[in-house]
């Protein structure tokens, strides 16, 4: 008898929903394509303003006008901005997460994929601000895919639009990560490109690409899409050891012209 694998479904949304229902943090797991499994707590996706790093609060001070929150999760950043008179639309591929956003008072909730932004919002009023927070620079997935996503966002945003981004640098200090990075380099990929899925209880999401990249790599991904990176600030999350390496960063992407015709490799 072959053991059954996890059921395909909205594992991320189930995690958030259970955390709210039980009124306590719950743990899901991130599974990488090489079999590495690491825990992922729910508190980071649901915490209110007081729990955020100062760098995130400062970055959100740049938001204005129509806001598109990509990968909104539980809607913590969207609810914060909506309470400050921003017109917020959230985009997520988790139906349960969108339900949580609605319960937080976000009216415009769109179910869809970041890679379909142009199709989803082509006929909408242009956005002035785009959020890629909660390390959602990772949703760019890879160099080529990331450039295409940023091209689409260029098309659905105003000329003075900003992308407020949070990213995380790749690490190769463990044996497992070193082997993964080495394999990526051998295939001509960025060191921090991953294929992963989220598992919660007996449910798992589909596999999806994810990207850890440093600011210089993000700049190379963004440039051919008509964006330039600025205002990079390194930070640590509350509770991190003071001697821990500075892996997380915030950045602002501003339009630098029309997207180029050829994607530039960041590898």
TrEMBL record:
Every Methyltransferase domain range: 67-156
Gene3D superfamilies: Vaccinia Virus protein VP39
UniProt-listed InterPro entries: Methyltransf_25, SAM-dependent_MTases_sf
Transmembrane segments annotated in the record for this chain: none
UniProt cross-references to Pfam families, sorted A to Z: Methyltransf_25
Origin superkingdom: Bacteria
The name this protein goes by in its record: Methyltransferase domain-containing protein
């Amino acid at each position: 008898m072959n053991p059954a694998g996890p059921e395909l479904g909205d594992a991320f949304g189930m995690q958030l929903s259970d955390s709210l229902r039980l009124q306590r943090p719950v743990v899901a797991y991130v599974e990488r394509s090489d079999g590495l499994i690491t825990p992922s707590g729910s508190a980071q996706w649901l915490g209110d303003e007081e729990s955020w790093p100062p760098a995130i609060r400062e970055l959100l001070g740049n938001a204005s006008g129509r806001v598109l929150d990509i990968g909104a999760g539980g809607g913590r950043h969207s609810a914060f901005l909506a309470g400050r008179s921003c017109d917020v639309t959230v985009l997520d591929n988790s139906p349960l997460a969108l339900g949580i956003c609605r319960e937080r008072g976000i009216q415009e909730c769109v179910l869809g994929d970041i890679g379909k932004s142009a199709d989803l919002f082509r006929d909408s009023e242009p956005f002035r601000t785009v959020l890629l927070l909660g390390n959602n620079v990772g949703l760019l997935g890879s160099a080529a895919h990331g450039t295409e996503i940023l091209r689409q966002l260029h098309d659905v945003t105003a000329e003075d639009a900003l992308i407020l981004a949070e990213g995380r640098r790749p690490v190769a200090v463990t044996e497992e990560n070193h082997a993964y990075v080495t394999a990526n380099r051998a295939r001509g990929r960025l060191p921090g490109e991953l294929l992963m899925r989220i598992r919660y209880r007996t449910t798992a999401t589909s596999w999806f690409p994810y990207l850890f990249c440093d600011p210089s790599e993000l700049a190379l991904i963004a440039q051919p899409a008509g964006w330039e990176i600025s205002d990079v600030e390194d930070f640590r999350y509350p509770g991190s050891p003071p001697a821990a390496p500075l892996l997380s960063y915030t950045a602002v992407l501003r339009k630098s012209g029309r997207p180029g015709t050829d994607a530039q490799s960041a590898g």
